[in-house]
Amino acid sequence: MSGAKIVVIGAGVAGLTTALLLAKKRHHVTVVAKHMPGDYDIEYTSPWAGANYFPFSFPHEPARKWERETFPELWRLATQVPEAGIHVQDGNIYVAEGIPVTGFMKELVAEDAWFKNVVPGFRVLQKHELPKGMVSGTTFKSVCINTAVYLPYLLGQCLKHYVVFKRGVVKHVADAAEMHASEEKADLVVNCSGLMACKLGGVEDKKVVPARGQVVVVRNEAPGMFTTSAVPEGDDEMMYIMMRAAGGGTILGGCYQKGNWSPEIDHNLANRIMKRCVEICPELAGGKGVEGLDIIRHGVGLRPWREGGARIESEIINGLRVVHNYGAAGWGYQASYGMSQDTVGLVENALKLRAKL
């Protein structure tokens, strides 16, 4: 069935990508969101992301499939669509000496990584290519996304396909059905509310908690993207460097603090982030250390982490068919097309069943 009236809740990367794919199927899509591209708010995760393609999904999660399906589209945009604000960079991943590798980093740092045939140029680094304190590493061609360009690009593509955007605060998921631009009740609602899925009426998913991230954005140019398997300060801190396309600055990170809702900048953490980054990549600051960094701003974002992984699922709420797409934590961009394609598949199946009734 085509031409259904659909409301998508949320205008982050999940909501925009899903809305675009639904509109390409000739559905009549209205996106309702409290925050839109161009906004910066602690509740609105997508603008704060790095964002890049460093696959780290666990073997048992469908995220591996979503990441595999997403890379070709991100590569196409990077190499053929310059206005999308994505460019190709070398991704360099290092294993730190003497620090156990835990969690999702195990997949990312594997020398026989599952994604080695997904990305171009995957190889194991030689000893002389490793920074001090690193015992092994890999490199491959990856992409980095300037979210300040890419989110408006997605919005523009949606407008080109007649998606309507409306500012609005949805308190209960079923209320969204009354917010379609046609002023008629929507046939179906797609929930891309991200972190706010933990508070959205009718959903209130208690498996969703923030995974707080903090970054420093600098004007310095990086010669590639870099991350390490671990840092001495513990599992809730990280080291990553990525230079955004189109003059978007270089992102220095970071942390992964589950359950932390604080929007405040931790300046001690910021100093640790900068120190770690210039130690791994001295040329970033021209060999001058932290003093050689030219800071644009500090930022805090709350990733929508969900216990058990992201939720791509269909259900009936108050008699309304709802399809969920949320909970991607820190890999929303690099899984965005795969997740949205599966979401669209659930929407199409639901509409076919509805048409038979």
From TrEMBL:
Names of the cofactor(s):
FAD
Q: Which reaction does it catalyse?
A: a D-alpha-amino acid + O2 + H2O = a 2-oxocarboxylate + H2O2 + NH4(+)
Q: Where does D-dopa bind?
A: 330
Q: What is its EC number?
A: 1.4.3.3
Q: Which residues form the FAD dependent oxidoreductase domain?
A: 5-341
For this chain, one GO molecular function annotation is:
D-amino-acid oxidase activity
Q: Which Pfam families match?
A: DAO (PF01266)
Q: What is its main location?
A: other
- Keywords for this entry? FAD, Flavoprotein, Oxidoreductase, Peroxisome
State where the protein is found.
Peroxisome matrix
The UniProt entry's GO biological process terms, in alphabetical order, are: D-amino acid catabolic process
One GO CC term on file: peroxisomal matrix
Q: Where does FAD bind?
A: 45-46, 173
The record's comment on protein family reads: Belongs to the DAMOX/DASOX family.
Could you identify this protein by its name? D-amino-acid oxidase
